[in-house]
Specification:
The chain is of the alpha+beta class. The chain folds into two domains: 134 residues, Alpha-D-Glucose-1,6-Bisphosphate, Chain A, domain 4, CATH 3.30.530; 102 residues, 2-Layer Sandwich (Alpha-D-Glucose-1,6-Bisphosphate, Chain A, domain 4). Helices cover 24% and strands 40% of the residues. It is built from five helices and 13 strands. The strands form two sheets. Strands 1-7-6-5-4-3-2 form a seven-stranded antiparallel β-sheet. Strands 8-13-12-11-10-9 form a six-stranded antiparallel β-sheet, with helices on both faces. Helix 1 crosses helix 3. It is globular.
């Protein structure tokens, strides 16, 4: 049985409505802060394609008002489940923009677990959108890494590994200095830009955004968006994979 849901989030971004619109309504823009690969056909009735680990899902654009409103809805599955997404954009005096994001539809029988994961994930990605537009507008992510690792039952052990990877200690807070210390990767200085203790640790550097994730089922995930001009010159995945493998058990 499908269960109806709706999640609503709001964030103010230090950017213009036009800058936010570009980041949410074009494939390269979305790729630069979200997961997978995204293609967006503009206009009502257009197709939104989301490719992730070899699978591609399709949605239909249901609202297209440049600089104001963008919405799309996925096809309904046999069990009645589907997801719909809506962005409402409002410019504010002083040049900032308020983005209201609504994620709705119908979830499967395990809806409570799914809903909790979506609540947390939506908040993190909306914040990542804001970080991208504020700090990297005009730059496209040349390499996106979304790397799942092992399942770790002890969230405290996972969190300790997250904080060690970025050399932060104690009670971690946004604004704390960070430094990437994963073996096999260049040491990079940054700042903690997102914290949801034991679930998400986010770090922003001069050329990228990182997210270390402890999934609802204990799966560890590394996310990285690289905006540097040398993004294709080093394969970072093996080092991250080795780090994740070392956390198994």
């Amino acid at each position: 049985m499908a269960h109806e849901f709706a999640i609503s989030k709001e964030i103010e971004i230090d950017a213009t409505p036009e800058q936010v619109w570009e980041a949410i309504s074009s494939g390269p823009g979305v790729d630069s802060w979200f997961m997978g690969r995204n293609e967006i056909e503009p206009g009502v009735g257009g197709t939104v394609r989301f490719s992730f680990f070899g699978d591609t899902s399709k949605s239909t654009v249901t609202a297209w008002e440049p600089g104001k409103r963008f919405a799309y809805q996925g096809d309904e599955a046999e069990d009645g489940t589907f997801m719909a997404f809506e962005y409402l954009i409002e410019g504010r005096a002083g040049g900032s923009t308020v983005v209201r994001f609504v994620h709705s539809g119908f979830l499967s029988d395990d809806w409570e677990t799914e809903y909790d994961a979506l609540q947390k994930g939506d908040a993190m990605y909306l914040h990542k959108l804001a970080q991208y537009v504020t700090h990297f507008y005009g730059r496209i992510s040349r390499r996106n890494l979304f790397l799942p690792g092992p399942k770790v039952g002890d969230e405290k052990r996972a969190w300790a590994a997250f904080t060690a990877a970025f050399d932060v200690t104690g009670t971690v807070a946004e604004g704390d200095k960070a430094r990437l210390t994963v073996p096999g990767l260049p040491a990079v200085d940054g700042v903690v830009d997102y914290v949801d203790a034991h679930t998400f640790l986010g770090v922003r550097t001069s050329d990228g955004i990182y997210r270390l994730i402890y999934g609802h089922d204990g799966t560890l995930v590394v996310e990285h968006h690289d905006y540097s001009t040398t993004a294709d010159q080093q394969d970072i995945e093996p080092a991250w994979q080795k780090w994740l493998t070392g956390l198994a058990g």
